[in-house]
Write a structure and sequence with these properties.
The protein has helices spanning 33-43, 57-66, 83-90, 113-123, 187-196, 217-237, 285-298, 326-332, 336-358, 374-393, 400-416, 453-460, 469-484, 491-518, 529-542, 549-562, and strands at 2-7, 27-28, 31-32, 48-53, 73-77, 100-104, 107-109, 127-132, 138-142, 148-151, 161-171, 201-205, 211-213, 245-250, 258-264, 267-273, 306-310, 315-319, 420-423, 432-435, 438-441, 448-451. Strand 9 and strand 10 (148-151) form a beta hairpin. It folds into 3 domains: 2-212, Spore Coat Polysaccharide Biosynthesis Protein SpsA, Chain A; 217-319, Phosphorylase Kinase, domain 1, CATH 3.30.200; 326-562, Aminoglycoside phosphotransferase (APH), C-terminal lobe (Aminoglycoside 3'-phosphotransferase, Chain: A, domain 2, Alpha-Beta Complex). It is an alpha+beta fold. The longest helix has 28 residues, at 491-518.
């Protein structure tokens, strides 16, 4: 058996991703689909593989040359894309000694290719097309004797049925007689000509094989998720899963990621979909999620275990921590002492994350910025607040330039008074899970090095819980006492850093709430804006570390209007 893998396509339905990566190099469980196809052909007894290329051919050719294959792999570049018929004709010199198995490079399936080849040798036809029932693609008419009748959509005549072509076919050299001598050519045109000439085409009809193409973002997501889920469970269970795996969507967060619970019997995992990789190079959100999550777990931080991931598809399979957030635990607490106990546990775990996570942390893992610095404060917190909240959400006329003279010292003092540590950067109650009375941190992909007071401020001024000021003060004192047992910390310096971080965090929250509500249409975030405004007003009017009179006046005005 020799095989032709069709890898020349433009992948237009997968734009913009195919601008930087050709479709055959899209990965499933960190292996390009092209490599998976070659491996399947090898297992089927294939003696040689031909790969035609056109779009981003140098990427495909580099991949093939950089890897070692157990069978000969020949590349045939097409300066002008030739279509399937043209590719078959263009490689005719490489398969002169027998039938050719042709398979699309975007097919992921469990179809037994050795069985397909044997079926063709026994069918007595020049062509065998592998068919299955897939209503969306049922365009080939097949008769009761499993012979192709025509290529047309619509309802078939009595005794005939419409089937879908899998993109897998085996053909003899007789097909070449029905192809034009040069230029692009469609193989279906050749097959139609064969039928008109009375030459039969066999249909190998399979009963619901696993089959996916990866020609669209959704079909690629489904193929990757369906192929990786059993492997993730195999790692988690230490055995191959035997039960059906089901997938259920979960409510998302403020990002564009999609979350799912996947269940197999009584066990479950969480799958997060970051989306297809938007650029070939550079650290992306999914990379930060994987790299930082792996680092924190290795340092003994309470984060969900990552069982399996694929950086290109953006899929990550995690330990399932259940559905109980700290927000729900806090809402159920009517006794202040019990509420304090819950938050002391969180602070204990947070301090471990801040100190242990800092050790051997690499800024290469971070996404967006390597650390929490002055530029980040000014651009991603202060300017974000002005553009997304004051202007975008409230429609006010203030600009960033109007407040720049106050934002600048705020940024300076936030950094100057900061105690260095690992910074989660979104340590609020919805990113803290409680499972069997244990605390876990999720959504750590924004992590970086920075002032550890920032995470404490995120926790205590969290608008989802709205801790009373006296509870915040007591927890602040508890955190300082705990920190002093492991580091030489000046209490006043810590407080000054906390005052500044509480302000910058509050500005970031309001910017995010305004953006998510107005731009992303996630209007449930709007309910938390009044609490965030009230907290910002209280901190601006009560702390003495940095005075921001113009910002204070604006927030006082906004708070008065909300009343």
């Amino acid at each position: 058996m020799k095989a032709l893998i069709l890898a020349a396509g433009l992948g237009t339905r997968l734009l913009p991703y195919t601008r930087h990566t050709p479709k055959p190099l899209f990965t499933i469980n960190q292996r390009p689909v092209l490599a998976l196809t070659i491996a399947r052909l090898q297992r089927a007894g294939c003696r040689a593989v031909i790969v035609n290329t056109h779009h981003l051919h140098e990427r495909i050719e580099a991949f093939l040359s950089e890897n070692t294959w157990s069978l000969p792999v020949t590349v045939r570049y097409e300066p002008e894309i030739l279509g399937t018929g043209g590719a078959v004709r263009n490689t005719a010199d490489l398969w002169a000694d027998g039938p050719l198995l042709v398979i699309n490079a975007d097919v992921v399936s469990d179809i037994d290719l050795a069985q397909v080849y044997r079926y063709h040798r026994q069918a007595g036809c020049s062509v065998t097309m592998v068919m299955h029932d897939w209503p969306e693609f049922n365009t080939v008419t097949v008769d009761a004797d499993d012979r192709v009748v025509e290529f047309a959509a619509g309802k078939p005549q009595a005794g005939l049925r419409r089937m879908a072509f899998t993109g897998i076919h085996v053909l003899d050299r007789r097909v070449l007689d029905h192809l034009p001598p040069k230029g692009p050519a469609h193989i279906i045109d050749a097959y139609t000509a064969m039928l008109k000439a009375g030459e039969p085409i066999a249909a190998m009809v399979l009963d619901h094989p696993y089959w996916r193409d990866i020609g669209t973002p959704q079909s690629y997501f489904l193929a990757a998720a369906e192929q990786m889920a059993p492997l993730a469970f195999e790692k988690a269970l230490e055995r191959r899963p035997s039960a059906l795996i089901e997938r259920f969507p979960l409510q998302g967060d403020g990002s564009d990621r999609r979350w799912y619970r996947i269940a197999c019997g009584t066990r479950s995992l969480v799958m997060v979909d970051h989306g297809i990789r938007p650029a070939r190079d550079g650290q992306q959100e999914v990379d930060a999620f994987i790299d930082i999550g792996t680092h924190l777990a290795a340092r003994g931080v309470a984060v969900p275990r990552i069982w399996l991931h694929d950086r290109f598809s953006g899929l990550v399979f995690l330990e399932d921590l259940g559905e109980t957030h700290l927000q729900e635990v806090a809402a159920r607490q009517t006794n202040s002492e019990l509420l304090l106990q819950s938050y002391r546990k969180v602070i204990d775990q947070w301090l471990h994350m801040a100190m242990a996570g800092r050790q051997d942390f690499s800024t290469r893992w971070t996404w967006q910025t390597p650390c929490y610095d002055r530029e980040l404060i000014l651009e991603r917190e202060c300017r974000y607040f002005v553009d997304a909240f004051l202007g975008g959400y409230l429609g006010r006329s203030e600009t960033y330039a109007d407040l720049a003279s106050e934002f600048s010292p705020l940024a300076d003092r936030t950094i100057d008074h900061g105690i260095p540590g690992f910074l989660h950067r979104d340590l609020q109650s919805r990113n803290i899970m409680v499972k069997e009375e244990r605390i876990y941190f999720i959504d750590f992909q924004g992590g970086r090095l920075g002032p550890l007071q920032y995470d404490l401020a995120s926790l205590l001024i969290d608008p989802y819980v709205q801790l009373p000021p006296e509870i915040q003060k007591e927890l602040m004192a508890y955190a300082l006492r705990k920190l002093k047992t492991i580091a030489n910390i000046d209490a006043d310096e810590f407080q000054r850093g906390y005052d500044c971080c509480a302000l910058t965090r509050n500005l970031q929250m309001l910017g995010a709430f305004g953006y998510l509500t107005r731009v992303k249409g996630k209007r449930y975030f709007e309910a938390y804006i009044p609490a965030a405004v009230s907290t910002l007003q209280r901190h601006l009017n009560s702390q003495t570390t940095v005075r921001l009179p113009r910002l204070t006046a604006i927030i006082n005005e906004i708070a008065d209007e909300e009343r």
